[in-house]
Amino acid sequence: MEQNQNPNPGSSLFSLNLDAQNSYTLRNTASWAKVLGVVSLIIAVLCIVYGVIAQQQISRMRDLDGLYRYRRSINTNTLASIGLVVYIIMAIVYGLSGFFALNAGNKINTGLKTNDMQTLNAGFAGARNFFALWTILMILFLILLLLGLAGNLSSM
């Protein structure tokens, strides 16, 4: 039988090996992913705390006529609740992002230390989830920016 041999075995996807430089770079990347994860989780908690504080302060305001002269029907409790929801959404985004980054960093580091390919692959999957989340958010932000630009241009 004919054996299917690759003339350049180093280029085969399944025979990739990590040399010392690649391992160092991955460890360094995993460390930065862990830092990013921890900072994102701290930001998520601070978003919730700040959202609650802002909601309480806005709820205590009685007179918004100076701020919103043309919208006298605005209710401070409604405005405060909307602000709290915005901060909670931000906290969820940063919390998920931090979880994915921290998970990826920990698993990549563990996979490299134990020479376990399954753990390393799980770390790469966590990194993929992190990048997928931020890609989706950036696309949504781009769409919102384009819609806002189109709205502004149509009102000119």
Biggest sheet record: none
Mean pLDDT figure:
84
- The shape is elongated
The helix/strand class is mainly alpha
Instruction: Classify the helix fraction into a percent range.
Output: over 70%
Distinct helical segment count = 3
Report the span from N to C terminus.
74 Å
Number of β-strand runs: 0
Q: What is the gyration radius calculated from CA atoms?
A: 24 Å
3D structure, described in words:
- This protein has 156 residues and is an all-alpha fold.
- It has one domain.
- 76% of the residues lie in helices and 0% in strands.
- It has 3 helices and no strands.
- Helix 1 packs antiparallel against helix 2 and helix 2 packs antiparallel against helix 3.
- The longest helix has 41 residues.
- The chain is elongated and about 65 Å long.
- The N terminus is likely disordered.
